[in-house]
UniProtKB/TrEMBL annotation:
Native organism: Sordaria macrospora (strain ATCC MYA-333 / DSM 997 / K(L3346) / K-hell)
One function term, GO molecular function aspect: transmembrane transporter activity
Main location: membrane
Location within or outside the cell: Membrane
Domain of life where this protein originates: Eukaryota
Bias kind Pro residues: ranges: 28-37
SUPFAM superfamilies (alphabetical): MFS general substrate transporter
Entry-linked Pfam families: MFS_1 (PF07690)
PANTHER family for this protein: FI18259P1-RELATED (PTHR23507:SF1), ZGC:174356 (PTHR23507)
Protein name stated in the entry: WGS project CABT00000000 data, contig 2.1
One cellular-component annotation, GO: membrane
Disordered: annotated segments: 1-42, 280-313
């Protein structure tokens, strides 16, 4: 139909959709489908700028606090270790400091006596399990909160998630500040606050949904790339900023980081606009969200039950469990998929542990301060960013069949599947070499730096999430085992 005559079929009451049955019972006309406006660039750029700024602010706050929180945790554990009467050449009660909790004293969190194996092992363990207890409530409640996101709106659930994150961060600071009152492992209970809005899980998901709601499909990969870039840039700049602030006042860094996160919450409350389609929010029983109309020959209830969409939280959970069962059965019938998932799982174990454990590892192995050691994750972020915006696009064009480069070398022209396979193998090799250089027991900066560069270049090719609940504890356990075996 010619659109130039002013006729808009999407507004007709008898315009069919993909859910309209071919056979209809009775002479009644089909109901009017819900109207969903198409995304426009006028909606896209303000939303993208707001969401990217929000992601940048929250990541900025967390990255500023990363090294200082590790330093404070080490100071508390170190103080407790020596106050129990462990000697190590100092004698019982030989240390009088607070180690980063409340008051001053003779023991600083940067004291070389805190680099001993038992202290470092416990620091890694407490930090790792803190991450686990933070992510478990968020993952467990992701489905119910996801359902509510489509019912009450993206913004409301986003604000609840951010509020839960702020409470979690405030609890960690409370425990660390009053470490003479709270046991250090009380920091694990902060994860309960992430049950509010599903915390970091909802934050990450809703950020992408907000953009997807107003972004045309052909522009989504670019828009999502901007969101990813904001996270990488935050890590590149603000992890070393937090490390530098340690030399001024470790608690100054912690409070600056928290205030930046509060600013992010204000940005979300004031500037984020609701993007949930009006029809989806106001009419849950519309054809787009409920069972399809039944044709004349399909009045059987079993047919309706098998095709209707879930409505309640219970139905959504049952639906996702059924889909997970089907996916599991399919994967077990495809050994290559299982092998690929195992590779992703192993990668994510290392990725989850990489930043904080790298700071701790470099501080222990090279004898660096936490401020100096925080430069390594920043180096990795720079490598990751350059790989994403320069190296990967260049290699992709170079190896494509229509590449304008090196016409005298036809062997460089590859089909898309072959090109993707080769790039995956090359960057997986980077990952492996990077891990090897990081693990080499030679206390020299060049090995760690080279390993971080290769690892981060390889990681730029991997876009997946998983193993978050086991990666940090396993890595922390291996770190502790290495310390017990005497490796530097």
């Amino acid at each position: 139909m010619d659109p130039s005559d002013g006729h808009d079929p999407s507004n007709e009451t008898d315009y069919p959709t993909e859910q309209t049955p071919f056979l209809r019972k009775g002479p009644h006309p089909p109901p009017k489908p819900p109207f969903t406006p198409k995304p426009t660039s006028q909606q896209l750029w303000p939303t993208l700028l707001t969401v990217a700024s929000l992601a940048l602010l929250f990541n900025m706050g967390m990255h500023i606090s990363a090294a200082p929180s590790l330093a404070i945790l080490q100071g508390i554990i170190c103080r407790n270790y020596y106050e129990k009467g462990v000697t190590d050449g100092l004698g019982p009660g030989g240390l009088g400091g607070s180690g980063g909790g409340g008051g001053g004293g003779g023991l600083s969190f940067e004291d070389d006596r805190c680099k001993i194996g038992p202290v470092q092992s416990e620091v890694a363990e407490v930090s790792a399990w803190k991450d686990v207890f933070e992510i478990l409530p968020a993952v467990a409640l992701a489905i119910p909160w996801g359902v509510l996101t489509d019912r009450i709106g993206r913004k409301k659930v986003l604000l609840l998630a951010l509020f839960g994150l702020l409470l979690n961060e405030a609890w960690a600071r409370l425990v660390y500040r009053f470490s003479d009152i709270f046991p250090v492992r009380a920091v694990w209970f902060g994860g309960l606050f992430q049950a509010i809005g599903a915390g970091s899980t909802s934050f990450a998901s809703i950020a992408y949904v907000l953009v997807a709601d107003v972004c045309p499909a052909e522009k989504r990969s670019t828009a999502f790339g901007y969101l990813l870039a904001s996270t990488i840039i935050s890590r590149l700049i603000f992890v070393p900023v937090g490390g530098y602030l340690i030399s001024i006042d470790v608690w100054l860094a912690m409070w600056i980081g928290y205030l930046v996160e509060v600013l992010g919450f204000v940005v979300a409350a004031v500037f984020v606009k609701e993007t949930l389609p009006v029809a989806a929010a106001s009419d849950p029983s519309s054809p787009s969200q409920s069972e399809p109309l039944t044709g004349a020959d399909n009045t059987d209830s079993s047919t309706t039950d098998s095709t209707k969409k879930p409505q309640t939280v219970k139905e959504h959970v049952e639906h996702y469990l059924e889909k997970a069962k089907e996916a599991g059965t399919w994967m077990l019938q495809n050994p290559k998929i299982v092998l690929l998932l195992i590779c992703f799982w192993l990668y994510m174990m290392g990725e989850q542990a990489e930043m904080l454990l790298m700071i701790q590892y470099a501080s222990k192995r090279l004898g660096w301060s936490f401020g100096k050691a925080s430069l390594l994750p920043s180096l990795g972020a720079l490598t990751n960013l350059l790989t994403l915006i320069i190296l990967l696009p260049f290699l992709s064009v170079l190896l494509s069949p229509s590449s304008p480069y090196f016409p005298s070398l036809p062997s460089l022209r590859m089909s898309e599947p072959r090109k993707d396979t080769l790039l995956a193998q090359v960057f997986a090799t980077f990952l492996t070499l990077g891990c090897f250089l990081i693990a080499v027991p030679i206390p020299h900066f060049s090995f760690l730096a080279s390993g971080e560069v290769l690892y981060s270049a390889g990681a730029a090719f991997v876009c997946t999430y998983g193993a978050a609940s086991v990666g940090r504890p396993v890595a922390a356990g291996l770190f502790g085992a290495g310390l017990r075996w005497g490796g530097r």
